[in-house]
């Protein structure tokens, strides 16, 4: 099984609530760029945080990939959710390749937990960074990092 971890694209700095922050134009561009890395991947389920910027990110990815079902919005993919709680939720899902669209520090800690069995060195995921983990089960220390990709930096000369 593969678990893809996608951090949301760049979001506006402020909003009434953190959960309401929306993607910037650059953030939408970042996500579109990273969606290309997911083309042809046999994703069985796309799960995303209920935060607006994560839902927007998931929608951009799904639009780029073509016909797929809507993302499953889950309350346990929020920034400060305990990693072990997320792993329990993943264990209850049908097997197959998953895309998780969420936030830091959760995704970095989750990647470290699944690959290393601890949270000492979280995966370095900037906005719209995409990590691919592979293994037989989503269990602490039993997956390995296949790839870690980051979007191109903003070209300020344009």
Account of the 3D structure:
This protein is α/β, with parallel strands linked by helices and about 160 residues long. Helix content is about 30%, strand content about 20%. The chain has 4 helices and 6 strands. A 6-stranded mixed sheet has the order 3-2-4-1-5-6. Helix 1 (about 25-35) packs across helix 2 (about 50-65) and helix 3 (about 85-90) crosses helix 4 (about 105-115). The termini are far apart.
**CATH top-level class:** Alpha Beta
Percent of residues in helical segments? 25-40%
Structural class: alpha/beta
CATH topology-level name:
Rossmann fold
How much is the average pLDDT?
94
What is the overall shape? globular
Q: How are the strands of the biggest sheet laid out side by side? A: 3-2-4-1-5-6
**For the record, what is the CATH homologous superfamily label?**
Phosphoglycerate mutase-like
What radius of gyration results from the CA coordinates?
A: 15 Å
Strand content: 15-25%
- Specify the biggest β-sheet: 6 strands, mixed
Report the end-to-end length measured between terminal Cα atoms: 41 Å
Give the name of the CATH architecture: 3-Layer(aba) Sandwich
Number of helical stretches of at least 4 residues:
4
Number of domains: 1
Order of helices and strands: EHEHEHEHEE
Number of strands: 6
Unreliable segments of 5+ consecutive residues: none
């Amino acid at each position: 099984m593969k678990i893809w971890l996608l951090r949301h694209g760049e979001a506006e700095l402020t909003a009434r609530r953190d959960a309401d922050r929306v993607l910037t134009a650059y953030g939408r561009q970042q996500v579109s760029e990273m969606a290309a890395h997911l083309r042809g991947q046999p994703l069985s389920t796309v799960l995303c945080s209920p935060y607006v910027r994560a839902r927007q990110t998931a929608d951009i990815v799904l639009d780029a990939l073509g016909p797929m079902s809507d993302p499953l919005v889950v309350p346990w993919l929020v920034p400060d959710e305990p990693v072990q709680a997320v792993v329990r939720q993943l264990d209850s899902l049908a097997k197959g390749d998953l895309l998780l669209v969420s936030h830091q520090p959760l995704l970095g800690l989750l990647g470290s937990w699944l690959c290393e069995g601890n949270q000492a060195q979280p995966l370095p995921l900037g906005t719209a960074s995409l990590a691919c983990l592979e293994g037989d089960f989503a269990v602490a220390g039993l997956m390995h990092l296949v790839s870690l990709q980051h979007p191109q930096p903003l070209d300020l000369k344009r």
